[in-house]
Specification:
heterodimer, A: 141 residues, mainly beta, flat, disordered N terminus, B: 546 residues, alpha+beta, 10-stranded mixed beta sheet, 35 strands
């Protein structure tokens, strides 16, 4: 009896959650940014790119600086590092990415990291009930 | 300011511009490939380049079609012949209107070709008394399904033309009469607030990245008068296609209210809503003001509010719904989920598109990514998909997955009238140009081999594009023709058991020749076989190409 109940519960849970479709077109590379504070307002930031398949071309970019790597085997991690100072800023977003050749084209995956203090919180939301019962998450001007 | 939403031109050509029956470069060679001694040709004859060849007994008879500016194709009676496409179509060198497109005869590579340029979804073909026909924004541009008010003058679109009504002649005023009627002449209320809703947009750039923040009008966005004290809704309307709204309401004189724009369209023609979370729609509220007889309140939904991208997603949904209606379909509810900071991924599931909003990858302004996911919605609700799912990165993959993804990308391109797929992310992004790229299959590939989604979108684009400047030899169709195969053949046909089981590029090509005939054989061969080496057999249910 317990087994039957367990199966029914599984079916119900599956039915309630529709199948998630394929993700959007992507680049065959995983990208990660790690930041390590080195004192003061300075950080050592490392971008790591790991292709998910053999690629004939790999270009890394970090904080606007571009590094051409070239052919890279599947699973082989490639990194670039930059020393970044916030200067007068209290916080800053750092972006980086990896561009790979795919057939006749190129695709890019990106990562970002926040250095220093967190970004400003999003504006507050006011809930407004619409005539059909739906709630509107209102952000005021 | 509005930025172009619908394709400026959906280019089409109604017959082969180049390529003849199987030629790949327009060159002709009267005896190329023909065994004169045996004269072993099908009874209907064959096209060799642009040469019509047939057997008369044991004697080989050839006719170089280029000599008469004709094209080799199946003619009357189902036999191969030299056919002047312009004569066949009844088209002259002066453009005329035909089925929402301009069509004209041109000479390309020594042959007459019917060149048609389909009008965008928000355009109409206009034929002046003398001179060529042109595509131009329709007379109802800026009005839309609900119309709008200009003071107390009602502006509606009726039978394809603007129609104005002075409501005061009947002792009434102009206001919103509900979603079923849109703006109408209504009874007066104590207070009215009018204005225009715009949102800050960032258009994707073909060189990568996003353009600057630019205000654009919000079409079909729900607007409400909200009482500040208790957030009660006092009146609701939709914006017209010029972004304008008129809200008539009753309140206590002087009490504080404000206008709220909501990222949803509630009319049957454009059922789109953009949720921030489950059943919670994005909204933006303007400054408070005291209820008074007449107030002007323009809203600009700012990027800083974290809401403007939701209105951009709404606008892509509106564009898609308009296209669906133009293609003869009845829109159904589309739900989008996006929120700034969301890391849930970008994908489609069960009537809802989910869009990333993360710091490293925010798709809120990525129009082609949004339309790609809406393409999956359209495929799911109006056509057919057998995609097994899974990641896809442009490399050769399962043909069903490649078809679904390539078609969704093509859908985005066709609706925008531009061959670019643009996905921005932190610090840049990537762009695919399906018109200039050629992702070919490897030698020895079969119809069931793994294939890149890029190959699919490139072939679809090249089949559907045309008009002046077309860089491929297939100029005989429109994007509407391509989409029609999706909604027609693929949605209901019993598919041929070749290649991969389930819908793939083979089935589209089968459907193409079923719906559009074999006169396009030569043109289709160029983008499919010559340029991208897809080994289609040209022997589907529509017949065998000559």
């Amino acid at each position: 009896m317990l087994v039957v109940l367990f199966i029914c519960g599984t079916v119900a849970a599956t039915a309630a959650q529709p199948r998630r479709g394929p993700p959007k077109p992507s680049a065959p590379v995983d990208v990660r940014i790690d930041a390590r504070p080195t004192g003061g307002a300075t950080y050592v930031v490392t971008l790591t790119a790991t292709p998910r398949r053999d690629v004939t071309g790999l270009v890394l970019d970090l904080d606007g600086r571009r590094t051409v790597i070239g052919a890279t085997a599947k699973g082989q991690a490639r990194t670039v590092t930059a020393r970044i100072s916030l200067g007068a800023l209290r916080g800053r977003d750092i972006a980086g990415g990896a561009t790979v050749d795919v057939g006749a084209g190129r695709r890019r995956a990106a990562a970002s990291a926040r250095l220093g203090v967190a970004a400003a919180p999003p504006p507050p939301v006011n809930l407004v009930r619409l005539p059909d019962g739906t709630y509107a998450a209102e952000v005021r001007q | 300011m509005t930025r172009p939403r619908a394709p400026a031109r959906l280019a089409i050509v109604l017959a082969l511009a180049l390529g003849g029956c199987g030629g790949d470069d327009g060159a002709s060679d009267a005896d190329a490939g023909v065994d004169a001694a045996a004269c072993a040709l099908p009874a209907r004859g064959a096209c060799q380049g642009n040469v019509a060849a047939r057997c008369d007994g044991d004697e080989l008879v050839t006719e170089d079609c280029t000599a008469t500016m004709a094209s080799c194709m199946l003619g009357e009676g189902g036999t191969v012949a030299c056919v002047d496409e312009c004569t066949l179509a009844g088209v002259t060198d002066v453009a005329s209107c035909r089925e929402g497109a301009t069509v004209a005869c041109a000479t390309i590579n020594g042959r007459h070709a019917v060149i048609a340029t389909a009008c965008g979804f928000d355009e109409t073909c206009t034929q002046p008394a003398s001179g060529p026909a042109t595509c131009a924004p329709g007379p109802c541009a800026g009005i839309g399904p609900v119309g709008h008010c200009s003071g107390d003058t009602l502006v509606r679109c009726a039978a394809g033309a603007p129609q104005t009504t002075d409501c005061t002649t009947n002792g009434m005023v102009c206001g919103y009469g509900g979603d079923a009627t849109g703006y109408a002449c209504v009874a007066a209320t104590p207070f009215v607030v009018r204005g225009t809703v715009r949102y800050e947009d960032r258009a994707p750039l073909t060189q990568g990245g996003l353009g600057p923040l630019t205000p654009v009008v919000a079409r079909s966005a729900e607007v409400s008068v909200v009482r500040d004290s208790d957030s009660a809704i006092l009146a609701t309307a939709l914006t017209g296609d010029d972004g304008s709204y008129t809200l008539r309401y009753t309140a206590t004189q002087g009490e504080l209210v404000h206008v709220m724009a909501t990222a949803r369209s509630t009319i049957a023609a454009r059922p789109v809503r953009v949720f921030r979370a489950a059943s919670m729609v994005h909204a933006f509220g303007g400054a408070s003001f005291a209820a008074a007889a007449a107030v002007q309140q323009d809203l600009l939904v700012t990027d800083a509010s974290g809401v403007s991208a939701a209105f951009n997603i709404l606008d892509q949904g509106v564009l898609s719904m308009d296209a669906l209606r133009a293609l003869g379909e009845t829109p159904v509810q589309l739900t989008a989920r996006w929120a700034s900071g969301s890391t849930n991924g970008t994908y489609y599931s069960n009537g809802t598109i989910f869009m990333l909003g993360s710091a490293s990858d925010d798709d809120g302004y990525d129009d082609t990514v949004i339309l790609h996911e809406i393409g999956h919605f359209v495929e799911d609700r109006f056509s057919r998909s057998d995609s097994p799912g899974g990641a896809h990165d442009g490399s050769p993959t399962d043909p069903n997955l490649a078809w679904s993804e390539g078609w969704a990308t093509y859908f985005a391109m066709a609706l925008r009238g531009a061959p670019y797929y643009m996905d921005t992310n932190a610090g840049g992004g990537w762009v695919e140009n399906s018109d200039t790229s050629a992702t070919s299959l490897a030698a020895g590939a079969t119809m069931g081999s793994d294939i890149s989604e890029n190959t699919v979108s490139q072939i679809l684009w090249d089949v559907g594009d045309g008009g002046p400047g077309d860089d491929d030899l297939m100029s005989s169709a429109t994007h509407v023709d391509v989409l029609d195969v999706t909604f027609g053949y693929l949605a209901s046909a019993t598919l041929r058991s070749v290649g991969e089981n389930g819908v793939d590029l083979v089935d589209f090509l089968d459907g193409w020749f079923v719906q559009h005939g074999l006169t396009t054989c030569g043109g289709v061969r160029y983008p499919v076989t010559t340029r991208r080496m897809f080994p289609y057999d040209y022997a589907g249910p529509g017949g065998a190409c000559p």
